[in-house]
Amino acid sequence: MKAVAPVFCVLLLLLSLPVAAEPENSLESLKKALAASFSDRKPLLWGETVTGVRTRLDTEKKVIALTLDACGSDRGRGIDAALMDFLVREKIAATLFMNARWIDANPELFRKLAANPLFEIANHGLRHKPASVNGRSVYGVTGTRNVAELVEEIELNARKIEAITGKRPKLYRSGTAYYDEIAVEISGKLGHQVAGFSVLGDAGATFSARQVRSALLKSAPGDVVLCHMNHPESGTAAGIIAAVPELKRAGFSFVRMSDYPLK
Asked: Which residues pair with 165 in a beta bridge?
């Protein structure tokens, strides 16, 4: 009994110690806290420009924010090399919205783009889902089912980007660019402004080069242009390459979204 007593005492001591608390910034803690905070809220809005979505730069200067999505689906993991080479060669700034699947498919290229000061890396979600708290869908794509899944969609890709680049993204654009207003609020709680657009540049990489050029040439000061960088088969590159010199001659310059306040 004398030999057993010390062991018994140690066991009692261990059982009496408090269980380690979950870190405040753990994913599970975030999901639980935000789910509780928004448990009594029901979304009323659904669309691309619901309350809180930032669609323009807050300036009257002749600047345009060119934004390029990289969506990462099975047919959307490519890279429009002609477009990206043009932007680098001509020193055209852009904001790149990166989905986690695209990053995983193009890790070396992602690091190269993130290291280029011309480009700002932004959050395009984990699975490219519409931003919903109740599973609403658009274009046949089901949105995040609840608050917890929305937090995963935003936060896990934000942490992926930060782990690779050392910088946490400040802007979020959902898959399909659709939101309910509660999802926009939750994005803000996670440190992201929701980045919409004011110029539909390539309609999901379906526009012809002529249509892309025409869309961009309608840009006004402070516009945010939405195009794609993951469909080399599309007319996006040729359209942008045709439009940029004309916009420059008209006095426009290109900036990253975070270079100006948003509205």
From this structure: none
